[in-house]
Amino acid sequence: MKTPDPAWVKFLQEQYPSGSRIRLQEMGHDISDHIPPDSMGTLDHIDDAGVFHVKWDNGPLLSMIIGVDRFLIQPPEPTLLKLYMPLTASRYEIDEYGGVDYEGSEIDGKALLAYEGAIYKALISRRSQEESERGVMHWYDKDDAVNYKVRSIVFTAEEREGQLWGVAECRVIGTLTPEEMAVLTEYISGQASDGWGEGFEQRDIRVDDDSELYVHLWNNDNWSIMPEQDRFDPEFPKGSLNFAGLFCPARGVSSISSGVRTVIIWRSRAAKALKSTVIWLITTIKNGESAKHRKTQ
Fold this sequence. Notes:
8 helices, SH3 type barrels, 16 strands, elongated
């Protein structure tokens, strides 16, 4: 058999991960353990020669070769991967004329539980029409394994252990490698701080009839993003720099746990200051509008 192009093999391995279902149409090579047409099997792996190793439902583990055997491939259904991040907000009081208090106050995830419904509704309404199929993965512009494996990402909020968390719900096909997990969490952190989340936190959420919330998916105080099994594991270190990680000058510190599972990302204080300025400008504009309203009364 002719040795296939390694890039082609890599493409096959990314497109058809272990667990894909195989339907045999016709077996072209002569083997003693013949598998009848329409037999179903589960892909074990694709080797470096591009050969599909299949565990057949009604038979042993046998290989299939593109161009020799005829078969259909159905990738596995996506599984749900939840990545949790701290959720905070800035709260501003509204006076009787509709003006907004400049000072405001910072609220953590525990206090935000009282506004879970309003925040959840705001997160859903922030989603654009372009994001209807893939969520914020619509804006992912790399042609790589992460783009194929991660079918969608949406931001939501969830109560766990007495506080409200920001959650990136990811629908994933197959298994992410440590490198792919690092790429995914870096992309989500960018969307939370500078992309989707930046637009979201500039939208006011009216609560208690006399207050506005500006909710932050990202914040500067030891912000981290972790899968469920790490975030709520009491023995897992959190907010610690005692990881053997990679220093990224543009982003801060990115660290990957020795297991595979977690990427934790810290970002610079400059971004937090910029976001506070933006929110201050929003409240200033609103106060200017309310002042005009008072003059006309």
